[in-house]
Amino acid sequence: MSAGAWQARCRFSGAAPTALAHTVEENVRFVAPQANEAALTALFVTLGLAEHRRHYPGELSLGLARRVALARAFVVKPDLLVLDEPFVSLDAALAARMRTELIELVSRQPVTTLLVTHSIEEAIAIADRVVLLSASPARLLADLPIQCPRSIRTAEEIIAVRDEIEHKISVADRLGAGC
């Protein structure tokens, strides 16, 4: 395939979800008018949006608005998905549920995903690899592959990865290159 023949589909979902002044379904269909009904219904069911299809942005909680943003990102079947703090300012239980939903979507529709987060636990729960960056200007502090697939990670493995990340951050702080 020639370089000009390949075009990547990239989707970005930021920390502040945005939606047009249309229903949830219209917001999602706006970015993918060709989406078939079965695929859209499956996406809405996975993200807990099925009963909210006809709701307007002003009728949605922050958690539902973030789910609409994820639906808009996934419905186009992107090659690259960039998520900037997608679960920030959500309570712990909702953030955990949305991480599970994200993992399910990525498992069903594999996509290279770049997740920006300040939460070590969130990074470990979702990632196959954690890249630590310093404070501005950003420099690479560590690139840590997580060897064990997320579906079978034990509590001990999660603790070991967290400890390694915290150690790298501690060393960076001592050297004045903190995160």
Outline the structure in words.
The protein has 179 residues and is of the alpha/beta class. It has two domains: 9-116, Rossmann fold; 118-179, no CATH class. The protein has six helices and five strands. The strands form two sheets. A three-stranded parallel β-sheet has the order 1-2-3, with helices on one face. The longest helix has 20 residues, at 155-174.
- What is the overall silhouette? elongated
- Structural class of the helix and strand makeup? alpha/beta
Radius of gyration: 18 Å
- Order of helical and strand elements: EHHHEHEHEEH
CATH class membership of the largest domain? Alpha Beta
Fraction of helical residues = 40-55%
Write the layout of secondary structure elements.
Elements: E1 10-13, H1 24-31, H2 37-46, H3 62-74, E2 80-84, H4 92-108, E3 112-116, H5 120-126, E4 129-133, E5 140-145, H6 155-174
Parallel strand pairs: 1-2, 2-3
Antiparallel strand pairs: 4-5
Task: Give a brief description.
With 179 residues, this protein is of the alpha/beta class. It has helices spanning 24-31, 37-46, 62-74, 92-108, 120-126, 155-174, and strands at residues 10-13, 80-84, 112-116, 129-133, 140-145. It is elongated and about 50 Å long.
